[in-house]
Amino acid sequence: MTTSETVRDWIENYSFIGKIYQSVEHQKIPVSLDAQNRLRASPDTDALELIFLYHSSTPGRLNFLLRRLHQRHETIDISPNNVLTAYPDRAHTGFFKLQPLAWRARSLRCLWRDQHGNPIKRALQTAADLAKPSLLTIGQGQECEYLVEQIN
Q1: Position 69 pLDDT exceeds 60
Q2: Where are the beta strands (DSSP E) in 10-73?
Q3: In which element (H, E) is residue 86 found?
Q4: Strand partners, 96
Q5: How many CB atoms lie within 10 A of CB 9?
Q6: What is residue 119's DSSP assignment?
Q7: What is the CATH number assigned to the segment(s) 3-150?
Q8: Please, which pLDDT band fits residue 146 given cuts at 50, 70 and 90?
Q9: Which of the four, 5, 17, 26, 31, has the lowest number of CB atoms within 10 Å?
C-alpha cells in the first residue's frame, strides 16, 4: 500500500465521525448550528460533531449522508430556502459530496457540494465579514473550501 493510500484509508469507502470547518482567507472557521438548527460558519463556536455515513463515490468525489453525533435522529439536508439544516426524523435526505483537494492522515481539504453538485457557500449577507456567523447555503454566496477532520 502506498503512502497516499494509507493517508486516505480513513475516509474512502468508510463512515467516520468528524468535524467540518470552513476555510476562508487561511482561517479555519467551525461549522455549527444556530438556534433554528441551520448550519453556519461561526468563529465563536465549537465545530459540530457529525457522523459521515459513507454513501458512494464517483470520480473525484466521496459521497456521504450527514447525521449529528449526539442527536443521531437528526440528519443534515437542504431546506426549501437553500440553507443547510438539521432535520429530526427525516425519511429522505440527500447526500453530500466531498471533492478532495489535499489529503492528510486525519483531515481532508475539500470542496463541499450537495447531491446535485451545487457548492456549499457562505451566505451572501455575511460573506465578507469573517467575524460574523454565516449560514451555509447552496444559494447566493461566497464559494470556499472546507476542512474535514476525523475525530474517531
Answers
A1: yes
A2: 16-24, 27-33, 39-41, 49-58, 61-68
A3: strand 84-88
A4: 64, 114
A5: 11
A6: B
A7: 2.80.10.50
A8: very high
A9: 26
The Cα–Cα gap between 110 and 82 comes to 21
82-139 pLDDT per residue, tens: 999 999 876 667 899 999 999 888 899 999 999 999 999 998 765 567 778 999 999 9
Q: What cell does 139 get?
A: 444559494
Cα–Cα separations (whole angstroms), residue 131 to 20, 38, 80, 136 = 18, 18, 27, 15
> How much is the mean pLDDT over the chain?
88
Model confidence band, residue 4 (pLDDT cutoffs 50, 70, 90): low
13 vs 69, 101, 120, 135, CA distance in Å? 19, 17, 22, 29
Cα–Cα separations (whole angstroms), residue 143 to 24, 54, 72, 137, 152: 9, 24, 28, 10, 28
